[in-house]
Amino acid sequence: MATSSFDIVSKVDRQEVDNALNQAAKEVSQRYDFKGVGASIEWSGDNVVIKANSADRVLAVLDVFESKLVRRGVSLKNIDFGEKEPQASGKEYVLSGPTKEGIDQDNAKKISKIIRDEGPKGIKPQIQGDELRVTGKSRDELQEVIALLKGKDLDVALQFTNYR
């Protein structure tokens, strides 16, 4: 009997994040409570940068951006703003967060351990760079692993690809 497999990856749909950012920027430019506070949200390389004249306004813009991301189906785990403490930079406050792609080694080991400990027997997880390949004899067992991982609260947003 042939073995079945799937890959566990963590990817960001850059276009959806870009659309959410543009929607948030448009809302910030039109909303009355953001008039005259210099509030903005934009890309800076792979980082999302939020600026305003007070820390509260930066967090309000962040809230608008996060709501747009959720509506577009992008996990909030894909953009890391740290402790969400805006940094004072001259007369304005700045909050910057990079987009996160790939599964780092620590999280890959954690996921692999969860699969070995709690998953069905005969399932083999392999770390391959920034993703994991999970193989097993039965497709039903692989679906159990997917359900198991969806039920866990991990530090990364997971997608399951190449299911064969």
Give an overview in words.
By secondary structure, the chain is an alpha+beta fold. It contains four helices and eight strands, in the order E-H-E-E-H-E-E-H-E-E-H-E. It has helices at residues 14-30, 55-71, 105-118, 139-151, and strands spanning 4-9, 40-44, 47-52, 87-89, 92-98, 124-128, 131-136, 159-161. It has a four-stranded antiparallel β-sheet, with helices on one face. A four-stranded antiparallel β-sheet has the order 2-3-5-4. Strand 4 (87-89) and strand 5 form a beta hairpin. The longest helix is centred in the N-terminal third of the chain and has 17 residues, at 14-30. The chain is elongated, with a radius of gyration of 20 Å. The mean pLDDT is 90.
Describe the SSE topology.
Layout: E1 4-9, H1 14-30, E2 40-44, E3 47-52, H2 55-71, E4 87-89, E5 92-98, H3 105-118, E6 124-128, E7 131-136, H4 139-151, E8 159-161
Antiparallel strand pairs: 1-7, 1-8, 2-3, 3-5, 4-5, 6-7
Helix pairs in contact: 1-2
